[in-house]
Specification:
This protein is mainly α. The protein has one helix and no strands. The radius of gyration is 10 Å and the shape is rod-shaped.
């Protein structure tokens, strides 16, 4: 299930960038 882990990692990184942009 490497693909699922990769997607989760991508979403997590996207959330981090989104939070940084709001601050």
């Amino acid at each position: 299930h490497v693909l699922i882990s990769n997607i989760i990692a991508g979403l997590f990184e996207f959330e981090c960038r989104n939070t940084e942009g709001k601050q």
